[in-house]
TrEMBL record:
Lineage: Bacteria, Pseudomonadati, Pseudomonadota, Alphaproteobacteria, Rhodobacterales
Cofactor: record remark: Requires a divalent cation, most likely magnesium in vivo, as an electrophilic catalyst to aid phosphoryl group transfer. It is the chelate of the metal and the nucleotide that is the actual substrate.
EC number(s) on file: 2.7.1.15
Organism (species): Histidinibacterium aquaticum
Any one annotated GO CC term: cytoplasm
This protein's name: Ribokinase
Length: 290
């Protein structure tokens, strides 16, 4: 089975500080770095490193050969990534304080200019059992969900950045919605009746995660970690969960794997490059089983 991820691709500019700056305050960073990110790219890396099969569809600046090379270095196929003339690759400014919490400012760049026809060409190649994964960091959310539903494949949405006006209209086309605790509260506050077929994956940070399906709720605790940078933890959870489901694991075991992967990911700086490989996650699970 293939997961077609129509997803964002960013350069992440990461600054580590003692505390978040207040209004008018200027801080000197303890360290600064540039890495790879974007919810879409993070999720594709997580899927691949958890043993899943993923094809990434997205957009970067036409002249950004460095990003294309960096994605290839991650082992991802780049044929679904198009270069957009006159556009910069998306970027994120990430400020991380010493406790590991972060604040993020996004510039969508080319992520907001993915050609709809390019997505259509990729989606029609999918077969029964495949999935389409979407986030709210690109311009093709509604159209991508509708095309995937028309193709008869599963549709997953990571609903961040959360915008009720954009999310609620596409929910009838979504099978699995992934949100964090705050986004889940915003979803409920927005009102309305959720589709009967919808399952929801909710992450609670250090308290674990829940999978709420039409028939049951599965709660899995987090694995203790000493976080350095929580950027990308939710993406790691979702990507690994989907990969393990596609491998045939029951939902509870797939979610336990995802919790272990997230625990490892937050203990290293950065987003995509900090996502652990399958062997590392299995070792941590084995260690916590005793």
């Amino acid at each position: 089975m293939t997961i077609l991820n129509i997803g964002s691709i960013n350069w992440d500019r990461l600054y580590v500080v003692d505390h978040f700056p207040g209004p008018g305050e200027t801080l000197a960073a303890k360290s600064a770095s540039v890495g790879l990110g974007g919810k879409g790219l993070n999720q594709s890396v997580a899927i691949q490193r958890a043993g899943g099969r993923v094809r990434h569809v997205g957009a970067i600046g036409e002249a950004d050969a460095a990003m294309r090379a960096a994605v290839e270095d991650l082992g991802l196929e780049t044929s679904g990534i198009v270069g957009i003339p006159g556009s910069l690759t998306g970027s994120a400014l990430i400020v991380v304080e010493r406790g590991g919490e972060n604040q993020i400012i996004l510039d969508p760049g080319a992520n907001a200019r993915i050609p709809a026809e390019h997505c259509r060409e990729q989606i029609v190649r999918l077969e029964a059992g495949d999935r389409v994964l979407l986030q709210n960091e690109t311009n093709v959310l509604a159209e991508g969900a509708a095309l995937a539903r028309g193709q008869g494949v599963g549709v997953v949405l990571a609903a961040a950045p959360f915008d009720a006006a954009l999310i609620w209209p596409v929910l009838p086309d979504i099978d699995l919605l992934a949100v964090n605790e705050i986004e889940f509260a915003q979803l409920r506050e927005a009102g309305g009746e959720l589709p009967n077929h919808l399952s929801i994956l909710v992450t609670y940070g250090a308290r674990g995660a829940s999978l709420i399906t039409p028939s049951e709720t599965i709660n899995v605790p987090a694995i203790r970690a000493n976080p350095v940078d929580t950027t990308g933890a939710g993406d790691t959870t979702l990507g690994c969960f989907l990969a393990r489901l596609d491998a045939g694991e029951p939902a509870d075991l797939a979610l336990r794997y995802a919790m272990a992967a997230a625990a490892l990911q937050v203990q290293a700086p950065g987003a995509a490059t900090a996502i652990p490989h399958e062997s590392e996650v299995l070792a941590l699970l084995d260690q916590n089983a005793h």
